[in-house]
């Protein structure tokens, strides 16, 4: 296996530029182009992973975004897992802008409908108070002014902008401010519905990325990053809310009472809904994070379910099953051996989740008829979809 032993890159960078990093020495002499093409890269900003690029090759260009100002990037090429032993640290020039007037939330309730104002701005819908089994919380599935559309992101993400579309429609109809605080996850948010109950995954990782954005200090001045983890500022110093084994502290911050809609839950929900609806940076972060996460997970699914060479629609349905968690791996494996594996996969959960399966069938059928799907297969070597 080819390993990188030395990497070069700039020690400093400025916002608006592009920093180039290159793997320059290896554990093997004169590695071939095929081995070099398999090199992966991870970029962290102040301990928060901001990108992981699979099979990106021996060089990586990193656009220096405004949220990196005054922070330090750690750029690591790797084969199996990144390490600081083979890395470049880049100090980004500039200072964080200070927020003089943080968000003040005024919540109003009309029956079961919660609305809010931010700093005396216009009123907006936050969510409806709903009951789910023994729990209560807010739900917002109302369409917003900006809905996820793959054509807006193909230039940046290529075919992956289409790959994530069926699940995004199933989860939220593409709404960037889609909200759910009524189930065991405590808080689920965004167009891909990332949940807060899984440590070091999904919403926890997304929130870390959100907290790098300039607007985070407006919406959540009481939150900060501590060694790459979400922490709450207190008079006694920052208190870490999540780690690699638990996100319980964060869940309690987001939604302290699973049996009722409390003030903290309503205010936090209002801030996220308003942020997504009013910030292109928030929405861009959601999409970039989703594409990155799904690329990582598709590589895992390809290994777990032997999907190397599988057609795009089959891979999408497997990923959708795993994202929702509607079947165990043994059920997925059995469906993949059927005469028509796509239809067999789409039958999984069809009684319990009839509406979702119908939506998934419709979206895949529509995209296949349009020629978007049906021409790619997954390549485990490339960690990507390739044209057939």
Please describe what this structure looks like:
The chain has 388 residues and is α+β, with helices and mostly antiparallel strands. The chain has 13 helices and 20 strands. It has helices spanning 33-37, 154-157, 160-163, 165-172, 202-210, 216-219, 248-254, 263-278, 280-304, 312-324, 329-336, 341-347, 354-369; strands at residues 4-8, 12-13, 18-26, 40-45, 48-53, 59-63, 72-78, 88-92, 105-110, 113-118, 124-132, 135-140, 179-180, 188-189, 194-195, 223-226, 229-232, 239-240, 376-379, 384-387. The strands form 5 sheets. A 7-stranded antiparallel sheet has the order 9-10-11-12-13-14-15, covered by helices on one side. Strands 2-8-7-4-5 form a 5-stranded mixed sheet. The longest helix has 25 residues, at 280-304. It is globular.
Q: What's the Cα radius of gyration?
A: 22 Å
Q: Give the end-to-end Cα distance, rounded to a whole number of Å.
A: 28 Å
Strand order of the largest sheet: 9-10-11-12-13-14-15
Question: Whole-number average pLDDT?
Answer: 96
Quickly give the structural class.
Answer: alpha+beta
Portion in helices: 25-40%
How much strand? Answer: 15-25%
Total of helices: 13
Give descriptors for this structure:
single chain, 388 residues, alpha+beta, 7-stranded antiparallel sheet, 32% helix, globular
What topology emerges from the helices and strands here?
Layout: E1 4-8, E2 12-13, E3 18-26, H1 33-37, E4 40-45, E5 48-53, E6 59-63, E7 72-78, E8 88-92, E9 105-110, E10 113-118, E11 124-132, E12 135-140, H2 154-157, H3 160-163, H4 165-172, E13 179-180, E14 188-189, E15 194-195, H5 202-210, H6 216-219, E16 223-226, E17 229-232, E18 239-240, H7 248-254, H8 263-278, H9 280-304, H10 312-324, H11 329-336, H12 341-347, H13 354-369, E19 376-379, E20 384-387
Parallel strand pairs: 2-8
Antiparallel strand pairs: 1-3, 3-6, 4-5, 4-7, 7-8, 9-10, 10-11, 11-12, 12-13, 13-14, 14-15, 16-17, 17-18, 19-20
Helix pairs in contact: 4-13, 5-9, 8-9, 10-12
């Amino acid at each position: 296996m080819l390993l990188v032993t030395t990497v070069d890159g700039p020690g400093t960078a400025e916002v608006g530029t592009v920093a180039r990093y290159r793997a320059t020495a290896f554990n093997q002499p004169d590695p071939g182009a095929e081995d070099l093409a398999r090199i992966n890269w991870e970029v962290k900003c102040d301990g928060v992973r901001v990108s992981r690029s699979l099979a990106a090759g021996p060089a990586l260009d990193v656009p220096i975004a405004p949220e990196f100002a005054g922070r330090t990037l750690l750029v690591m090429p790797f084969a199996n897992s990144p390490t600081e032993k083979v890395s470049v640290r880049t100090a980004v020039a500039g200072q964080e802008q200070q927020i003089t007037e943080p968000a003040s939330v005024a919540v109003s309730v009309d029956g079961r409908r919660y609305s809010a104002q931010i700093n005396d701005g216009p009123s907006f819908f936050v969510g409806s108070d709903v009951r789910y089994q023994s729990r209560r919380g807010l739900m917002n599935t109302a369409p917003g002014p900006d809905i996820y559309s793959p054509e807006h992101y193909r230039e940046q993400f290529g075919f992956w902008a289409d790959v994530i579309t069926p699940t995004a429609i199933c989860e939220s109809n593409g709404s960037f401010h889609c909200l759910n605080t009524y189930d065991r996850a405590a808080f689920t948010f965004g167009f891909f519905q990332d949940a807060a109950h899984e440590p070091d995954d999904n919403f926890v990782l997304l929130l870390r990325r959100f907290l790098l954005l300039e607007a985070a200090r407006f919406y959540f001045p009481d939150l900060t990053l501590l060694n790459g983890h979400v922490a709450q500022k207190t008079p006694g110093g920052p208190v870490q809310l999540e780690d690699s084994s638990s996100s319980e502290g964060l869940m309690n911050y987001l939604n302290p009472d699973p049996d009722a809609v409390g003030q903290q839950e309503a205010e936090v929900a209002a801030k996220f809904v308003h942020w997504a609806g009013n910030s292109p940076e928030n929405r861009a972060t959601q999409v970039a994070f989703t594409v990155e996460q799904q690329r990582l997970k598709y590589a895992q699914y390809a290994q777990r379910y032997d999907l190397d060479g599988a057609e795009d629609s089959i891979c999408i349905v497997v990923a959708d099953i795993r994202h929702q968690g509607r079947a165990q791996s043994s059920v997925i494996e059995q469906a993949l051996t059927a005469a028509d594996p796509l239809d067999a996969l789409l039958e999984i959960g069809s009684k319990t989740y009839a509406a979702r399966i119908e939506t998934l069938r419709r979206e895949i059928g529509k995209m296949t008829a349009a020629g978007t799907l049906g021409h790619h297969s997954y390549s485990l070597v490339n960690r990507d979809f390739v044209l057939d």
